[in-house]
Each structure stands twice: as C-alpha cells, then as structure tokens.
Specification:
heterodimer; A: alpha/beta; CBS domain Like; 6-stranded mixed sheet; 4-stranded antiparallel sheet; 14 helices; B: about 240 residues; MetI-like fold; about 75% helix; elongated
C-alpha cells in the first residue's frame, strides 16, 4: 500500500533521513518509533509531501506520489498531529467536515458523515457539534482531530504523535479506541511516536529509527525477543523487556486446561495480558489464577511457573 | 436590544459630532468669551459640514489605498514565494512612518501641485506602517499546528489564505487599520497648509489670524471625528476573535 524505496532527505548539508526502505501492507498499523530527531516525523511528512524527499521513490498503491497534485494526494490521506491543528474559528462539526467540503461533497452527505464520525468517536452530537476547539479538553480535541482525519474515508491515515500531549489515562483510553477503530475500519496507518509502550501496544509492524536510518523493523514480539543491537534493546526498556513482552501476550496463550485441583480463588480474564496476570499474582500473593471467559465461567488455570514460561508445570 | 446597546457609545459620539457640525453657529456666545476681541468668532469661510465631508473623503481615500497596498504587501511577503521580501516590506513601511507627513507634503507639492492629492499621498505613506506591521503580526502569529493541519488536509494556498489565515488574523489586522485611520484623521489637518480644504482650515486660519476660537472649533471637530471613528472600529464584529 505504501512503499518507501531507498528514500533519503537532506536539509542542506544535513541528512535527516538516510536511505530507508519500508513497506506498509494494506490494513496494517505501522509505528515509527525513535528518539527526537531520528527522522521519524520527516519520514511521515514525506508520505503526504509536506516535505519533499530528496532521493528514492515513494509509492502509494503502486503509483509514485509525485504523480499526484499535492492537494489531491493529501485529501486521500487522513492526517492527525499532536497539536490537533483544529481551526480555532470553526465549530467542531465544521472542522470535521473540512476535507469532504474540499472534495465538494453535497452538503447533506457531509452532514451525515460528520454525524457518523462523531458517533464513532464518542462525541455526542448535541453537546459537541456547535462547540469551538478552545472549549474542548485535550482528549476531546484529539478525538475531533482523528474524526477530521477520517472524514473523507481515506484508505491511509498518517498520525504524528497524536496522543503525545495527553495525560497518561486519556492517552491509554485513546490508544484503546484507536485499536478498536482499526479492528473495524482496517485503514493503513503510519503512526509516529517516541513512546515505546504506545508503539508496542499499537503496532502490527514496528520500525525503530535512529539517526535517520531504520535500525530494525518487524513484529513487536520479534523485536522484543531479538533486538538487533544495544540501541534497540535500550529503547525497548532493557530489563523491562520481560514485562513489555508479557503485556503483548494474552493469558489464553499460556493457560492450561482445568485440572483436578481445586479452583484458585483469584480470577483473571482470558483476554487479559500476562503482565496483568503477573500483577494480580504479586498483589494477591497467589501462585495460581483461575482463567475465566467473558461470562466469568472458568476455562483454565494459570500458574506462576507457566506464566514465566517454564517448560512444564508440575 | 443587545445589538442596540453594542452600538450606543459610537452612536452617541456620532450624534455629538453631528450636533457640533450643524450647531457650531449657535455657540457664538461661548466662543466670543474665548476670543472677545475678534469681529467674527465662528469660522465661516466654509460650513463645517462641507469641511467634515472633505476631511472624511481625504482620510478614506488614503485609508483604502493603504489597506489595499499594506495588507496586499504583507500577504505577499508571507507567501512562500515572497519570503525574501519580508525584511524589505517591513523596512519600507517603517520608513513611511518615520518620514514626517509635513516633509512628504513639501516634497509632493512641487510634483503634484497644491490641493488634495499631496495630502492623500502623505496620509497613505504615514498610515501604511500600522497596517503592514499588524497584518504581518496577525499572519505570522497563527498557530503553526493550524497551518500544518491546513496544508496536511490538502487545502490549496488560496483556500488557506481565505478560510484560515485572514479570518484568524482579522482582529489584529483591523486593530492596525483602526490605529492608521485614527492617526490620519488628526494628521489630515496639515493638508490645509497646501490648499486641501478640510477640518484643518479653521485651525490654520486661526493660527494665521490669531483667532483662538477658530483653532478650538477645528480641533473640537477633528477630535470628535477621531473618537467617533475609533469607537465604531471597537464595535466591529470579529469572526476570528475567539
């Protein structure tokens, strides 16, 4: 869907992005992660030509992005940024309807689309449609920003640290919402962040960048298990890697069928992560948990030995 | 009701201005007290309504020109293709204001002759700076995130200018126009020295003939006009003021 082929960007003598190649498959959520100044934002902004690449080729669905007019290209891609960039003199509804208006949709269709998106992002129409951006909280403004990016139903969504300025609780709930949205909409998303937890939580495809180059890319678990070098390892949290990996694995993957023993008192949902299971064990001073399904029916059990991945359970 | 109240203050000043224009003749007694020795105490070479009309005309023409050129130049200097001219534009506007209007008149009269034209040129140059400076400040002051989003969403340069930049910069631009016009209402009086008849006439004539009453009448009219216009500007609805 999106292909970067030996792409380089120079600003004068400085090389911001150095010969990177990257493919993002349709429906995939690709996260570019790295420290400040590693070129991840530059890479993102080259895709919608806010920055023109110096060398190499960038393709969208097999076509060079330079074959499109800039405006046409950008209207095909949603774009959400950290500062939201909502127009302060426009209402929420008008902000969301921006790209459909640029594409000259009929008014009734725009109205219907705005209502649909506000419902999708959990913004009550009566409450928010007429509000101005300065009347919104950070989380609400970012929801509006995402709704605006989705307005013309683009296949591609570019997100530049969209949740970076939010408090941790709002950030986590928006990450969760993005995952749910993505499960329903199957957009091709390129997401930039410097927050490794966010990257691991969201990514199908994780790309670690450092000094303008891609140091490693692959599925989050692959990177956790086999970091290419010390930099990737430290970015992944060094000693914390075990917990980060545990956060990516569901309880259902390690649980054993219910045995003859009495059910353990403490319970954990089968969709919960191993990290949460470990936390429950630590908190309750318990070495065994009963795994339950969504209806709270026991379906298996999880022991500490099993959780930490020891070969067999005795 | 609320709409009416919004305009009450400017309307009050306008009423006072109108009363002074039409009723100056009735104040004969008052001005005779200021200027007891003169035979005539109310300026009568032209009626005040005509002088007011000419004054307004000169200031308006200069203002329209200054707005067109000033806002236009500031917009051009903030486009990608005009960035190189940004320092030049702001310097030229500064020079326009440091150049005293009297000097402009002195230089313009030999070229343009006596009358209204030289004073329009002088006021235009003098009024340019506040407009250019504020338009630049307004456009440059827009949140970079808003500009980035506007471009990233696929708005064209013209769409960004009309739908985003100008509405958001409008309050600052209007403040510049307000300063420019108010200053020029006062400055226009010197036009009387080169034969542009306006509310400066009574003042110049009063100075020449030693008639304080004339000076007071001209100054009163100009003051009321400036306050009325300033007050009108302060009540203008601003879409971008949020």
């Amino acid at each position: 869907m999106i292909d970067l082929i030996h792409v380089t960007k120079r600003f004068g003598a400085a090389t911001a992005v150095d010969d990177i190649s990257l493919s993002v498959a349709r429906g995939e959520l690709c996260v570019l992660v790295g420290t400040s100044g590693c070129g991840k934002s530059t890479t993102l902004r080259m895709i919608n030509r806010l920055i023109e690449h110096s060398e190499g080729e960038i393709h969208i669905e097999g076509q060079q992005i330079r074959a499109f007019r800039q405006e046409t290209l950008r209207r095909r891609m949603g774009y959400a940024i950290q500062s939201t960039g909502l127009f302060p003199h426009w209402t929420v509804a008008r902000n969301i309807g921006l790209v459909p208006r640029l594409l000259k949709w009929p008014a009734a269709k725009i109205q219907a689309r705005v209502e649909e998106l506000m419902a999708l992002l959990g913004l009550a129409m009566e409450e928010f449609a007429g509000k101005y951006p300065h009347q919104l909280s950070g989380g609400q403004a970012q929801r509006v920003g995402v709704a605006r990016a989705l307005a013309a139903d683009p296949d591609i969504l570019l997100m530049d640290e969209p949740f970076g300025a939010l408090d941790p609780i709002t950030r986590e709930s928006l990450q969760e919402e993005l995952r749910e949205l993505q499960a329903r909409l199957h957009k091709t998303i390129v997401f930039v962040t410097h927050d490794m937890d966010e990257a691991l939580r969201l990514a199908d495809h994780l790309v670690v960048m450092h000094q303008g180059r891609i140091v490693q890319q692959g599925r989050p678990l692959e990177l956790l298990r086999e970091p290419a070098d010390g930099f990737v390892e430290s970015l992944l949290g060094g000693e914390d890697r075990g917990l980060k990996e545990a956060a990516l694995l569901p309880v259902s993957q390690r649980m054993l069928p219910l045995g003859p023993r009495r059910l353990a008192r403490e319970r954990i949902g089968q969709q919960a992560s191993l990290r949460e299971a470990l936390s429950v064990m630590l908190w309750r001073h318990s070495e065994r948990l009963t795994v339950v399904d969504d209806d709270d029916m026991p379906v298996g059990e999880l022991s500490l030995r099993r959780l930490v991945g020891a070969r067999s359970d005795d | 009701m609320i709409e009416w109240r919004r305009w009450a203050v400017p309307l009050g000043w306008l009423a006072l201005l109108l009363a002074a224009t039409l009723g100056m003749g009735q104040l004969d007694g008052l001005f005779r007290w200021i200027e007891a020795d003169s035979r005539q105490v109310i300026y009568a070479r032209a009626d005040f309504l005509t002088l007011l009309g000419r004054h307004l005309l000169v200031v308006s023409v200069a203002a329209v020109l200054a707005i067109l050129v000033g806002v236009g130049a500031a917009i051009a200097a903030t486009r990608a293709w005009g960035r190189d001219f940004l320092p030049l534009v702001s310097q030229l506007a500064s020079i326009g204001q440091t150049f005293p209007p009297v000097a402009v008149l002195a230089l313009a009269v030999p070229v343009l002759g006596f009358g209204t034209l030289p004073i329009i040129v002088a006021l235009f140059l003098y009024g340019l700076l506040p407009i250019v400076r504020n338009t630049l400040a307004g456009l440059e002051g827009i949140d970079p995130g808003v500009m980035e989003a506007a471009r990233g969403m696929g708005m064209s340069g013209g769409q960004i200018l009309h739908q985003v930049e100008l509405p958001l910069a409008a309050p600052v631009i209007l403040a510049g126009i307000r300063t420019s016009v108010t200053i020029n209402i006062a400055t226009a009086a010197i036009g009387a020295t080169v034969g542009a008849s306006n509310l400066g006439d009574p003042i110049i004539s009063g100075i020449v003939n030693g008639n304080t009453a004339y000076v007071v009448q001209g100054a009163l009219m100009i003051g009321l006009l400036a306050i009325s216009v300033d007050s009108l500007f302060s009540r203008l609805p601003l879409t971008g003021s949020r």
